[in-house]
Design goal:
Layout (H helix, E strand, L loop, with lengths): L12 H14 L4 E4 L2 E2 L1 E2 L8 E5 L3 H10 L4 E5 L4 E5 L11 E4 L6 E3 L5 E4 L4 E2 L2 E2 L18 E2 L8 E19 L12 E6 L12 E6 L10 E18 L8 E10 L4
Parallel strand pairs: 2-15
Antiparallel strand pairs: 1-5, 1-7, 3-16, 4-6, 5-6, 8-17, 9-13, 10-11, 12-17, 13-16, 13-17, 14-15, 14-16
Bound molecules: 2-acetamido-2-deoxy-beta-D-glucopyranose (NAG) (2 copies).
């Protein structure tokens, strides 16, 4: 049951949206709204907060989900129960596409050991805190095992090359956890692209998720989810506000759907 039933773009919105929603709603199918959302503490990974409403139809439930910037909705027609998941977590106002929710238990981690690139690293006592330290499989925040951008570098960035285009559902980030530097982890964008980009201008990549922060240890690992999946070969992470706060990534795990056999 790994099939994504259908995908539609904003272009065809007015024409086909209503009929598509009715088809799904009749089966009480959970519908994912393909929109950019905030990264969340992994402490509450798969269970998005739910709100229940009464709506007269699946279309109205979908419209409510759009208005309340929810991530997913389910309309149960016989009791007119409209359940929204992740209300308020959607960042963008326009849904990019809607998909029947794919199962998330068929994902594999695809970033470990892959080639990385990043803005100039920080050097501490002759040790270079290079970009590859964020995919070395070690996600314990200890001294000097993370990527750390150089001082006085605005919009620091990091990227991993998966070597193939994959459909990405989750990017899990381990931030630096020592108390000196927690506040540095904020205003981060996760993007997905298909071409190698070394200029630090990642605007051609698709925005996958955002993380406002600032980070706090109680958040544990940060999970950035796109339940609709975004395809690409490069995953980038960048600070997008101009403070001189460096970018420090202990580990980045990227979860993609399994390749068909
Ligand atoms: C909608 O369904 C949920 C469980 O799926 C339930 O907890 C909630 O009370 C229902 N709401 C209404 C208004 O029936
Ligand atoms: C970044 O690249 C885009 C094209 O991909 C371009 O339109 C934009 O001006 C660039 N921004 C900067 C700050 O160079």
């Amino acid at each position: 049951m790994a099939t994504v039933g259908w995908v539609m773009t904003v272009g065809g919105w007015a024409v086909t949206w209503a009929s598509v929603i009715i088809v799904l709603a009749a089966h009480n199918t959970k519908v994912t709204i393909g929109r950019i959302s905030e990264c969340l503490p992994e402490l509450t990974p798969e269970i998005l907060p739910q709100q229940h409403y009464r709506t007269e139809s699946g279309i109205m439930c979908a419209a409510l989900a759009m208005e309340k910037r929810a991530i997913q909705y389910t309309f149960t027609s016989n009791i007119k129960n409209c359940t929204l998941e992740g209300e308020g977590l959607g960042v963008d106002t326009n849904a990019l596409k809607m998909v029947a929710t794919p199962p998330t238990n068929t994902l594999e981690e695809v970033a470990q050991g892959k080639l990385t690139l990043a803005s100039t690293p920080f050097i501490s006592n002759n040790i270079i805190l290079n970009s590859d330290l964020a995919v070395d499989g070690d996600d314990i925040s200890a001294s000097l095992n993370f990527y750390h951008s150089a001082y006085r570098l605005v919009y620091p960035w990091w990227a991993v090359d998966l070597s193939y285009t994959r459909t990405i559902y989750r990017v899990r980030i381990t931030m630096r956890q020592d108390s000196c530097c927690l506040l540095r982890s904020h205003d981060i964008e996760v993007r997905v692209g298909d071409v190698r980009e070394e200029s630090g201008n990642l605007s051609s990549y698709t925005l996958f998720s955002t993380y406002k922060g600032p980070y706090d240890i109680s958040q544990g690992h940060i999970a950035c989810d796109r339940k609709d999946g975004v395809s690409g070969r490069y995953i980038s992470i960048q600070r997008v506000t101009p403070e001189d706060h460096m970018l420090q990534l202990v580990e980045v795990k990227v979860f993609a759907s399994l390749l068909p056999n």
